[in-house]
Amino acid sequence: MQTIYYDLRDTKGQQKEIEDKISAAAKILREGGLVAIPTETVYGLGANGLDPNAVKRIFEAKGRPQDNPLILHVTGAQWLPRYCRDIPPIAYVLARKFWPGPLTMILKRSPVVPDETTAGLDTVAVRCPNHPVTLSIIREAGIPIAAPSANTSGRPSCTTAQDVLEDMDGKIEGVVDGGACTVGVESTILDLTCEPPRLLRPGGLPLEDLERLIGHIDVDKAVTGKLEEGEKPKAPGMKYRHYAPKAPVTVVTGSPEASAAEITRRVSPTSGVICFDEYVHMFPEQEVHALGPAADKLTQAQRVFDALRTFDGSAVTEVYAQCPDNRGLGLAIGNRLKKAAGFHIIEADSQRIIFGLTGCTGAGKTSALKAIQALGGQIIDCDAVYHRMLDENEAMRNAINEKFPGVFSKEGKLDRRKLGEEVFSKKDRLAQLNEIVFRFLVPEVERSVTKLPDGLYAIDAINLLESGLDRLCDRTIAITAPVELRVRRIMARDGISEQYARLRISAQKPDEYYRSKCDCELNNALDTPAEFEKLAVLFFQKLMETVREEKRHGA
Ligand code: TXA
Ligand code: MG
Question: Which of 38, 307, 428, 450 has the greatest number of CB atoms lying within 10 Å of its CB?
């Protein structure tokens, strides 16, 4: 199928030509075809909303899940009684103030609206878009236009006709180019079938503007957080990710200074960054997409999908995104970023302090961990996490089983000795196991860490530096000690000969390795563990002060 491109960017041009193009688009729609249309929010993929077959084609072209209903686009509130029933007066109040504009209302549906459009719900979504070309097309077609965002399902919404062609060329009859969308994020969806009304999707019309007119509005849980498995949002579309990039996205919230600083601590040269204009210079090595000035949410809304879209064609391994606060359009911008991130969020302003402790045997890591506990801190024992994952994490178990066939019994029980023998006999086998474990362990620890309340934490991991767990730490600390002392300590602790103690130490990395790779060093040349613990308490106390101060100032 050839997609016809209608250029209507300049509506002040040839009046006759413009009218012809509008008529042509309206005709295709009336006859059951698909035409992408411009709106002030994002481009829509339009079809006759009363024609089940035309609507079915929308789902096919987008690859959209069948259970996700569509919005009917109309030219004004006078169309409401045709497609809705039991319309509350407040719907007209809202329409008078905000239509045409980025507000979608959920109302009870009338039987003329087919199940295909509403995905079988007894409600229907209606909106009047604020775009002269599209309003003319709908008026001329004389039918309500069902139009989801014109992207392939799972991709960011389209804010230019070019974006639409990228996703839809050859799949639809036409694209009407009405210029770049001025709002940039989709409409705000408000459910008026409940009391108080409920915000189902934040969008181009800020929540505050709505509340100023009609009073308190409940905010659906799906707007701010990830739903539990099996939980259903009231707007079915809110459960889907809007953007499934190859590279995982992490959203960093907090003051712009703090979130930018947090991102600088986390990026590598292969990271991508979405940040406010003021912070672009902080990422000279990274691929950066500027979202607009920190204080200019209008620009951020216009750019957010474009920024996400651009990373689709890039080779970055991860993307970090600065996030505006929740006021005004910020709620919608943040929601789109967070959805793209699968709600993987880091709070830059949090008062959660994480220290990563590492070092050789006999240096005093155990006493240092006790010092953390003495300060009211908690230990994140990565060895315990690893063992739990060996029992519970199917993906990790499968990956291990593939590389080390036979280490799991038929009943699925891991033979630890067998795996141990395998990896300790050959160095490259250990590296292979580590690669698998690190790949699963780091995100697991990261997920649990971001859920922790404020406070002090220490990550206890043998391979803190090698695994990448050090990324999660505010500071990494090398616990070091003179070799002679370590020899004597482990002889006493483990009841082994001097020769064996030296052998064990020589098999490990030297202090120098940890010293050069960690942020700071805590040297233990003291005689007893109790003395060292006291020293460590003072050391960590001071370090906490420094980190707190840094977080406060977003350094
Ligand atoms: O700005 C917009 O609203 C754009 C432009 C093209 O108008 N359209 C748009 O449509 O964003 P779409 O299909 O991408 O998103 C519609 C959202 C989905 O999350 C869907 O689940 C929800 O609206 N929705 C539609 N009908 C609903 C209903 N009856 N009850 C609850 N949610 C509904
Ligand atoms: Mg959409």
Answer: 38
CA distances from 401 to 385, 416, 450 (A): 19, 12, 30
Give the separation between CA 139 and CA 133, rounded to whole angstroms: 10
From ligand 1's centre to the CA of 71, what distance in Å? Answer: 5
* Closest of 313, 312, 322 to residue 282, by C-alpha: 322
Q: How far is the CA of 157 from the centre of ligand 2 (A)?
A: 6
Is 259 found in the same domain as 213? no
CATH number for the domain that contains residue 192: 3.90.870.10
Q: What is the pLDDT of residues 204-263, one digit of tens each?
A: 999 999 999 999 999 999 998 887 777 888 888 888 776 666 789 999 998 898 899 889
Encoded amino acid at 371, one letter: A
- Segment 464-482 shows an average pLDDT of 94
Question: Mean pLDDT of all residues in the chain?
Answer: 93
Nearest one of 158, 157, 257, 162 to 201, comparing CA atoms? 157
Nearest to 510 by CA among 469, 478, 468, 473: 478
| CB 18 near ligand 1, within 6 Å | no
The answer to whether the beta carbons of residues 184 and 160 sit under 8 Å apart is no
Say if residue 387 is in the same domain as residue 455: yes
Residue 240 phi, psi dihedral angles, 5° rounding: -90, 145
pTM score, two decimals? 0.70
Residues 119 and 148 in one domain: yes
Identify the H or E element spanning 243: none
C-alpha radius of gyration, the chain, whole number: 29
Give the total number of structural domains in the chain: 3
Whether residue 369 is found in the same domain as residue 462: yes
Please work out whether the CB of residue 55 comes within 6 Å of at least one atom of ligand 1.
no
Q: Is residue 227 part of a domain?
A: no
Q: Count other C-beta atoms under 10 Å from residue 133's C-beta.
A: 23
> Which of 169, 203, 222 corresponds to the end of one domain?
222
> Tens digit of pLDDT for each residue in 416-435?
889 988 888 888 999 999 99
Separation of alpha carbons 78 and 348, rounded Å = 48
Tens digits of residue pLDDT in 140-178: 999 999 999 999 998 889 999 999 999 999 999 999 999
Structural domain for 153, as ranges: 4-222
Closest CA to 547 of 265, 284, 281: 265
Query: CA distances (Å), 551 to each of 278, 312, 347, 356, in order?
Result: 19, 32, 11, 17
SS3 505: helix
Task: Please tell me the number of the ligand nearest to residue 198's CA.
Answer: 1
CATH at 358: 3.40.50.300
Say yes or no: 113 and 58 in one domain: yes
- Answer yes or no: is 241 within a domain: no
Residues 237/74, Cβ–Cβ less than 8 Å: no
Instruction: Give, as residue ranges, everything with CB less than 5 Å from ion ligand 2.
Output: 149
Residues 365 and 337 in one domain: no
The order of strands in the sheet holding 318-322 is: 287-290, 271-275, 318-322, 249-253, 345-347
Same domain, 184 and 265: no
* Same domain for 518 and 439: yes
CA atoms of 98 and 89, how far apart (whole Å): 15
**Substitution site in 68, 130, 133, 183 for ligand 1 pocket (most atoms within 8 Å of beta carbon):** 68
